[in-house]
Amino acid sequence: MNIKSGDTVVVISGKDKGKKGKVLTALPKENKVIVQGVNMLTKHQKAQGPMQQGGIIHQEGPIDISKVMYYCDKDKQGVRVGYKFLENGEKVRICKKCGEVLDK
């Protein structure tokens, strides 16, 4: 999986096409990610005692990894991610368009 939590991504298909946001959680076993402000779900929650209030809660739902691309700040668009080995033997992610190292 090329996308990690904390990355900025852009949605390339679906109802939220064109939106960009930060990855809150990566779910590699399900091949899904949860992106801030994308795929908003409405949850009706019952009150859990006198202190916690019930009501309608809006929260992000998981989106398939194939529907998002890494957003490169240098290129200002979604780009593909590749891997490269540095001189010290460390494996890092790179932008396939501009060659910039993504892992710092």
UniProtKB/TrEMBL annotation:
GO cellular component: ribonucleoprotein complex; ribosome
A GO MF term: structural constituent of ribosome
An example Gene Ontology biological process: translation
Entries under Gene3D superfamilies matching the protein: 2.30.30.30
RNA-binding keyword on record: yes
Alphabetical keyword list: Ribonucleoprotein, Ribosomal protein, RNA-binding, rRNA-binding
Domain KOW per the UniProt entry, residue ranges: 2-29
Source organism, top-level taxon: Bacteria
Pfam families referenced in this protein's UniProt entry, alphabetically: KOW (PF00467), ribosomal_L24 (PF17136)
Family classification: Belongs to the universal ribosomal protein uL24 family.
NCBIfam families the UniProt entry points to: rplX_bact
Described function: One of the proteins that surrounds the polypeptide exit tunnel on the outside of the subunit. One of two assembly initiator proteins, it binds directly to the 5'-end of the 23S rRNA, where it nucleates assembly of the 50S subunit.
Quaternary structure (record): Part of the 50S ribosomal subunit.
Name listed for the protein in its UniProt record: Large ribosomal subunit protein uL24
Native species: Sporanaerobacter acetigenes DSM 13106
Gene (name only): rplX
